[in-house]
From TrEMBL, chains A, B:
InterPro entries for the chain: CPQ (IPR039866), Peptidase_M28 (IPR007484)
Species this chain originates from: Panacibacter ginsenosidivorans
Domain of life: Bacteria
Stated name of the protein: Carboxypeptidase Q
Keyword Secreted: yes
Length: 519, 519
C-alpha cells in the first residue's frame, strides 16, 4: 500500500501548491510559530494579568488605566518599539463602584446579586425603601404615580416571565459544514443605528426624569440572564454634558421576577441598599495602547500590518471574553513573533482600543487621526500604507476561519494562509461581513480589515457583558490556537511581496457607529 | 386498514385489562382528577406562597415557621381535618442571616456573590481583612500559620481549577427506555454514613479551632458551581451543645479561583464583609405539619394512606425544587381530592416534614412517635394501619414512574395505577431503591413507602441546595402532572379493598440516618 500511496500523496501536495502558486507560505516559519505557542505559551499569564490583576476595564476608569500601564510595561519588556498609550480624542468621564450592597429586607432578609449600571449615581448612604412597580418606563406612567414615587425603588413590569431554557447546552462549537456559509453576523446598518440611538437616549432621559421625581433607584434585569448571571452595561453619562441618572441596579432575572410577583401581590417589599459610585473627571481624553515590531525591508518598512482588539470592558466581570480574549490573543501573537526574532519586511503594529463598548470610539479615533475620516473620505497619506488590520472580538472560541468582509480578492491568499492550520480546525472562508467591532473603523476608510470566525462557546449565552465574563470562563486551549493563527496571518501579511488587495473605496458617509449623541 | 385494525386494538385492550384483572381502577375518577388539575390548578399559587412569600425555610427559622402557619391556614381553608403543626421532638436552634455583604476591596473594588453557611457566626461588625491561603483545613496547617492567621480571611487551596463543562445541557429528561431499568439512586449504606459523619464532624471541629486562633472568616466554594450559582448548607451548630463556628461564607467558584490565583501571586488581596447572623433559642422543638381527609368506610377509616415530603430547605434560595416542589405537589394532590369531594374509604393524611436536610429528623421523629423505632423494632399498634406512604423529593421534574423499593408484590398494582397516565410520560416501574429522603423513615419500620421516579431537569446540576433554588427554576407543567398522578395513587390506595402488600419486617438496626452526633 505504502509504495502505491506515496506518489498519490505527493501528487496531491503538488496540485495543492499549484492551485495557490502565487501565494508562498513559509512552512518552516509556520511550524516555528506552532511550536513556540505549544511549548512556551504565555496565554495564562497574560490572561490572568488582563483580568484578575487589572480588574474591570471600563474606559477611563482605574482598571482601564491599570491595563494600559501593565500592557505598556509588558510590550517594553518584550522589546516592542513605539509602544505606550496613545490619545485619540475626548471620551469623557471614568466611573467605578466603591460599594455595592443590595438585599431584600422585607418581608424577610436575603442578600441579592446586583451590580450598578455604569455611569449612574449611587445612593449616597445606606437606604431601606419600598419597591414600586411601573407599568412602562415613560413620563406618562411616572406622572401617574406622582408623589408615590418619592423615595421608592422603581421596577418596570415585564411580561416575559419565563427563564431562558436550560435544555440546550450553553457552550457550543460550529460544525465544519457551516464555516464556509457563515452569514453576515453582528451587522447593524445606518437605519438600525438611527432607530436604536434615539430609543436609548429616550430611556436615558426618562431615568433623569425619574430622578427628578425623587425615586431612590431603578431596578433592571435582562430577560436572557439566569442562574446568577446578569448582564450590565452603562448610560451615556460618560460624555460631557450628560448628567448621571439615579442609581440603576441590575439584579438577577430570578430576583426581578420574584419582586414583581410579590409587589403585584401587594406585599410590603422593601430593599436595603448602599451603592457608592465614583466619577473621574481629571482626564477626559481617551487612550489606546500600541506597540510595534519594526519592519526591516527598506522599501516596505513604512508599510504596516496591524492587529488588535478592544481593551475596554464592562464592569461586572473582568472583561475576560469581551474582549480580554482578543487582547490576550493579539498580545501573544506579538510575543510569539518577537520571541522568534522574525525580521518582518513590513512593520507589525498592535493596537488595543478604548471606548469600543460605547461606539468603537478608540479605533475610530485612531483611524481618523492616522488614516482619514469616512464622512468626507479625505484620506491621509498613511492610509495607503496599511496592508491589513486583523481584529479579534467574538469571545474565547478558537479561530475556525475568517470573514472576507466582501473582499473576494483576498480569498485565495487567506485560503493558502489557513491551510497549515486545517488540523487545528480553521478551515472556513466566508465572503460575509461581520460587524459591531473595531475592524469596521478601518474598513470604513478602505483599509482591508478582517475579523476571524470564532467558535461561539458560551459567549452570547453567558459571558457577553455579564458578571461571569471572568478568567475562568476563558478557554485557554482555544486562545492558544487563535494566537498561533493570528501570528501566522500577521507574519504572512508582513512578508509577502504585495500589500493585500483592497475593495473599491467606500462612498463618503457617516461612520456606522457615529451618532449625534453618545449612547 | 381500519376495519382490520380495530379488532386488534380491542383485543389488546381486553388482554391488558385481564392481566390486571385483580386491580380495579376507577377510570371516571382518574379522568376527574386529570380534569380538575388541568382546569383549576392551584400549583402557581401554592408554589408562590411556599417560596416567594415564606422565603427560605431553614428548620426552626422564621421562614420555616411562616411556612407552617401558611400551610396550616391553607389546609383549614381547604377543609382538611386534624391539621396543624405537630411536634416530633427536639431539633435545636433556628438561624437566619440579617445582613450579608461581601466584596473584593483590594487591589480593586468589586461586589461578590456570597452566602453565609447556616449556623455559623457573623462578623459582628463590618471588617476589611486580608485573604490568606491554607494548604489544607487541618490543625497542623492552622498551627503552621500561627499568629499570621489572626484577623485574616482564610481560604483553603483547591487543586480543581477548571469549571464544570457548559457543553452539556443543564436540564435533561429521561429516555423512556431507561425508566424500567433505573438503578438504586441516592442510596447511602450504614458504612458510608459511618465514614462520612466523622469527616463532617472533624471539619466542624477544625473550624472551631480556626475560630479559636482568631481567624476572621472562612471562605468556601463548591467545585460544581458556576455562573453565579453556589451551593450552601450548614454546620452542626443547630444542635444543643454544638458551638457556632467562625463566619463561613460560600462564594462563587469563579471568585474563589480568582482569589486563589491572586493570593498565590502574593498580591495584597483584601475583602470587605459585614455578616450578621441570628440564632433562635426560644423553642428547640421540631415541628412537622399534617392534615387529613377523613376516611368514610366504618371498617377502614382507621387505616391511613399517607403522602408527604420535607418542607424545610436550605437558605440561599427559597427551597423551590428542594423540596418546595414535593410539598407543592402533595398539597395540590390533597386539594384536588378535597375539591372533588372524594369519600375515601381510608383516611388520607399529608405530612410535611422538618429537619430533613439535617438527617430526615422530622419524618423519623414522626414515625418513632406513631409507628415505632427501627432500633428495637418495637412497633406501635398504628404501624399495621398505614397502607402506604408516598414521597416526592427529587426536584421539579414530572413523574416518570415509581421505585418499588424492592417490594415486588406491589408491581402489578402500580402498573395498573400508572396505566391511565402513560400518555403523560409516567410508565416506569423499577424494583430499585431510592434513598436520602423521608420515605426511608417509614420503610425502616416496615411500612410500604415509595418515592416516584422524576425527570432530573436541572435538579442535580443547578438548583439542589443552591441560591438558584427559587420559584423561577420550577417547571409548573411538570408539577401539575405530578400532582395529578399522586392524587390518583393516593385515591387508589384509599379505595382498594386491601392495604398494600408489605415486605418482610426489616431486622432491628439503627435507622440509616441516625448517628451519634448531628451533622
Amino acid at each position: 500500500m505504502r509504495k502505491i500511496m506515496l506518489p498519490v500523496v505527493a501528487m496531491l501536495l503538488l496540485l495543492s501548491t499549484m492551485l495557490h502558486a502565487q501565494e508562498k507560505v513559509d512552512m518552516g516559519m509556520m511550524q516555528k510559530i506552532k511550536d513556540e505557542e505549544k511549548n512556551n505559551s504565555q496565554i495564562t499569564t497574560i490572561a490572568h494579568n488582563i483580568t484578575d490583576v487589572c480588574g474591570p476595564r471600563l474606559t477611563n476608569s482605574p482598571g482601564y488605566k491599570r491595563a494600559i500601564d501593565l500592557i505598556t510595561k509588558t510590550f517594553r519588556d518584550w522589546g516592542l518599539v513605539n509602544t505606550g498609550p496613545e490619545a485619540w480624542g475626548e471620551f469623557g468621564r471614568g466611573w467605578s463602584t466603591e460599594k455595592s450592597y443590595v438585599a431584600l429586607k422585607q418581608p424577610y432578609y436575603q442578600p441579592m446579586i446586583a451590580y450598578p449600571v455604569a455611569w449612574t449615581n449611587g445612593t449616597k448612604k445606606q437606604i431601606t425603601a419600598p419597591v414600586i412597580l411601573l407599568d412602562k418606563l415613560d413620563s406618562a406612567n411616572i406622572d401617574k404615580l406622582g408623589a408615590d414615587l418619592k423615595g421608592k425603588i422603581v421596577m418596570v413590569k415585564t411580561a416575559n416571565i419565563n427563564l431562558r431554557s436550560a435544555a440546550k447546552a450553553y457552550s457550543t462549537r460550529y460544525e465544519d459544514s457551516v464555516l464556509n456559509k457563515m452569514p453576515d453576523t453582528y451587522m447593524l446598518n445606518r437605519k438600525q443605528i438611527d432607530y436604536f440611538v434615539p430609543l436609548v437616549n429616550n430611556e436615558y432621559k426618562t431615568t433623569l426624569y425619574l430622578q427628578s421625581k425623587g425615586a431612590a433607584a431603578l431596578l433592571k434585569s435582562n430577560s436572557s440572564g439566569r442562574d446568577g448571571t446578569i448582564t450590565v452595561d452603562g448610560t451615556s453619562a460618560y460624555a460631557k454634558g450628560y448628567d448621571a441618572p439615579l442609581p440603576e441596579l441590575v439584579i438577577t432575572r430570578e430576583d426581578y421576577l420574584r419582586l414583581q410577583r410579590m409587589v403585584t401581590d401587594k406585599e410590603n417589599v422593601q430593599l436595603e441598599m448602599d451603592v457608592q459610585n465614583k466619577f473621574y473627571d481629571d482626564d477626559l481624553t481617551g487612550y489606546n495602547v500600541v506597540g510595534e515590531i519594526a519592519g526591516t525591508d527598506p522599501n516596505l518598512k513604512n508599510q504596516v500590518v496591524m492587529l488588535g482588539g478592544h481593551l475596554d470592558s464592562w464592569h461586572s466581570g473582568t472583561g475576560a471574553t469581551d474582549n480580554g480574549a482578543g487582547c490576550i490573543v493579539m498580545m501573544e501573537a506579538m510575543r510569539i513573533l518577537k520571541t522568534l526574532g522574525v525580521q518582518p519586511r513590513r512593520t507589525i503594529r498592535i493596537g488595543l482600543w478604548g471606548g469600543e463598548e460605547q461606539g468603537l470610539y478608540g479605533s475610530f479615533g485612531y483611524v481618523k487621526n492616522h488614516y482619514g475620516d469616512p464622512k468626507d473620505m479625505k484620506l491621509k497619506p498613511e492610509q495607503k500604507d496599511v496592508s491589513a488590520y486583523f481584529n479579534l472580538d467574538n469571545g474565547s472560541g478558537k479561530i475556525r476561519g475568517i470573514f472576507l468582509q466582501n473582499n473576494e480578492a483576498v480569498r485565495d491568499i487567506f485560503k493558502a494562509w489557513l491551510e497549515p492550520f486545517a488540523d487545528m480546525g480553521a478551515t472556513g472562508i466566508t465572503s460575509s461581513n461581520t460587524g459591531s467591532t473595531d475592524h469596521l473603523s478601518f474598513d470604513a476608510v478602505g483599509i482591508p480589515a478582517f475579523q476571524f470566525i470564532q467558535d461561539p462557546l458560551e459567549y452570547e449565552t453567558r459571558t457577553h457583558h455579564s458578571n461571569m465574563d471572568n478568567y475562568d470562563h476563558l478557554s485557554i486551549d482555544d486562545l492558544k490556537q487563535a494566537a498561533t493563527i493570528v501570528a501566522a496571518f500577521v507574519y504572512n501579511a508582513a512578508m509577502r511581496d504585495e500589500m493585500l488587495p483592497r475593495k473599491p473605496l467606500p462612498q463618503p458617509e457617516r461612520f456606522i457607529f457615529e451618532t449625534d449623541t453618545p449612547f
